[in-house]
Amino acid sequence: MLESMGSLTGSPWIYAMVALSVLLDVFLPVLPSGVLVITAATAAAAGSATGQVPHEVPDILALVLCAATASVLGDLVAYRLAWRGGERLDRAIARSRRLTSAQERLGAALARGGGPLVILARFAPAGRSVVSLGAGAAHRRARDFLPWSALAGLTWATYSVALGYYGGRWLGTTWLATGVSVVALFGAGAGAAYVMRRPAKAS
Q: What distances in angstroms separate CA 195 from CA 138, 189, 190, one per listed residue?
């Protein structure tokens, strides 16, 4: 697998590519940031298993920190842009039932002093975008939103890297291992999306 990936995983540039992909996918959810993280982690499993190329594959801890930091920075940028978006953004959100619903649910969750929705949304397709933009547009306090964003980014990054790393250790560092890990990541996303779509129970 390392050979087929070429110099990508054998270069420090892999961290820059992961960071850029994760940072931008809050605006472009179609970017395969999760796939890239998993692929890099699977390559790291090869070096760990053989012990022959420890300096030519990504470091697991650095990969987690890189992906988590980029995730939080992307959330912060989206949050600030939405905060300053003004009436035009407010009208765009009002036209979207999905954004309006997410904004209301996020506001209720943060008002109760909790933000599990922020963590859950990090796994759902486009959920990160909806929550970050919704929090900014609703002018939620940064101290209420950002700690949950940081926990969400760290949780997502740890889960994604663990999938790639242990998939590579258990199934071998092949594209099959990467594929299985990606399916597991998408499965978590589908589960998160299902939970987020469920109507909140009346208290």
A: 22, 10, 9
pLDDT at 174: 67
pLDDT at 52: 47
**Residue 203: pLDDT band by 50, 70, 90 thresholds?**
very low
DSSP per residue over 44-79, as a string? HHHHHHHSS-TTSS--HHHHHHHHHHHHHHHHHHHH
Is-above-0.70 flag for pTM? yes
Q: Given the structure tokens 């306090």, which residue do they identify? A: 141
Do 181 and 163 touch, CB atoms closer than 8 A? yes
Token pair in block for residue 105: 């649910």
